[in-house]
Amino acid sequence: MCAEKIKYKKEENIIEWYNTVLTSAEVADFSSVKGFTVYRPYGYRMWEILRDALDYDFKAEGVQNSYFPLLIPEKLLKKEKEHVEGFAPEVAWVTKGGNAELEEKLAIRPTSETIMYESYSKWIKSYRDLPLLLNQWNTVVRWEIKDTRLFLRGKEVLWQEGHCAFATNEEAERNAEKMIRVYAKIVREVLAVPSLVGMKSESERFAGAVKSYTIETFMPNNYALQCGTSHNLGQNFSKSFDIKFLDEKNEWHHVFQTSWGLSMRALGAMFMLYGDDRGLVLPPNVAPTQVVIVPILGKNDEEILKVSAKIVEELKKEGLRVLLDDRTNYTAGWKFNEYELKGVPVRIDVGQKEVASGEIKLKIRFTSSSEIVSLERLKEVKAVLNRVQKDMLESSERRLARVIKEERDKESFITNVSSAAEIAKVAWCGRKECEAGIKEKTKAVSRAISIEGEKLIDKKCIFCGRDAVCDAYFSQSY
RNA sequence: GGGGUGGUGAUCUAGCUUGGUAUGAUACCAGACUUGGGCUCUGGAUGUCCUGGGUUCAAAUCCCAGCCGCCCCA
């Protein structure tokens, strides 16, 4: 309803552009609680679509949904040392219940490992109870000091967290890697966002994990954005929380665990990647409205509306998400701009011309081009949407491939990473001290360590010159 | 922590130097007209001018104190 003109250009002021586009497209809004976002129906619908796709794959892996409490007692949170040290600075606390001070303050979950694993220790007694594969869709609160960006950085995050327990390290490792690949696949297929899949370095690893996997996507300015993570927790938590099982030989063992999460941030990455100066550009697979029909009224209205309704009906039969905007209090031109702002992938105008010719034009948001389809062959619309989805993904893949550069020269590496001219792929020693040195020089950290098993592009670490043990990607991060 | 800058109907904003009871646009409501790229017209509703104090016949405007926001640097 409030389509204000976008006064900012994406290239000139991406932050203002981003905020204006998301708020005026009615995706999200700011609330009076600083750092907390309101997700409006149009934006929430996209989350639902992404969520359903993920949930489907989780269930295919045998994962079940569950729900654990929002509040975590302080001593429970403190049970795993590294974990609490990692999260302590950004935990929000509840200290009062009604008027009474609580005896023990309660943390609003920054993540649910601790509260869930307390239950796990009660539920897991035998090898027959394993694997335990649970997920929950919820929100977590992290009191980050840095300023808020809709979807990308907020104090309350909508996400899912999966928490699995296994009898062996091998199973846990397989699960952690499997889930990161599920994330990469869904983000790619639904959001048309390509990502780098890899492992986190020691200093970037999740607090309490043995190994962390990540999918990293990239903003238009080449800054990396972590979109999803999957952790092999080893036995760190099972030892702190005493999660043990008896095996076939009647011997006690601590379980091996994983946790993995993907948040709404992935949508933010998609908005950033595809939006333009006219507004959002949504990939068809995540668009709440895939096709909008705008009747051009004036003369022969009855006929025009009849044809419009028929198109809607046909497209719905094809399983498409269609909207007919027959409001009379807005002009056609107003609607054109409105749906471009909202990023609707395909628009069909139905006026006298179309009624007379029996042909309609599909206006494609992503390419700003048109395509003629006969009213008799509306099934083709679906194919057009699929092609748009594919084109979008391919364009981003090409861009990502262009931005990643293999660096062999230290000075060139420092220069190019410092200025965010590229994402550097380098041979690296993997040491914490070395990463700290790189960070000091370039302000960049490692985003992912390759797990694709390709050969090292060089034998010596790009930065410190010691023996390299991995290929790593370095870039500025959001 | 240091420096800068700002706070005016729902939103953006003019007015502030030189005090005289707040301007314009958008959005909103009603009606008419219109609909092929953000129509037009008429009418309407909406203000603790950040807060408190001071000066003055009179303060959005000047003075003092405070609160809040944003930007830059550490």
Can you describe what's shown?
The protein has 478 residues and is of the alpha+beta class. It folds into 3 domains: 14-274, Bira Bifunctional Protein, Domain 2 (BirA Bifunctional Protein, domain 2, 2-Layer Sandwich); 291-385, Rossmann fold (3-Layer(aba) Sandwich), CATH 3.40.50.800; 404-475, Translation Initiation Factor IF3 (2-Layer Sandwich), CATH 3.30.110.30. 35% of the residues lie in helices and 27% in strands. The chain has 14 helices and 23 strands. It has helices at 14-24, 41-60, 74-77, 81-87, 113-123, 169-191, 236-240, 265-274, 301-317, 332-341, 352-357, 380-403, 410-418, 432-442, and strands spanning 28-30, 37-39, 64-65, 71-73, 92-97, 100-108, 132-141, 156-166, 196-199, 211-218, 224-234, 244-246, 252-254, 256-263, 291-295, 322-324, 346-350, 359-364, 369-374, 404-406, 423-428, 445-450, 470-475. The strands form 5 sheets. An 11-stranded mixed beta sheet has the order 3-7-8-14-11-10-9-22-23-21-20, sandwiched between helices. It has a 5-stranded mixed beta sheet with strand order 16-15-17-18-19, with helices on both faces. A 3-stranded antiparallel beta sheet has the order 4-6-5. A hairpin with a 5-residue loop joins strand 12 and strand 13. Helix 2 (41-60) packs antiparallel against helix 6 (169-191). It is globular. The mean pLDDT is 93. The chain binds one RNA strand of 74 nucleotides through residues 1-5, 7, 294-298, 328, 330-338, 340, 349, 351-353.
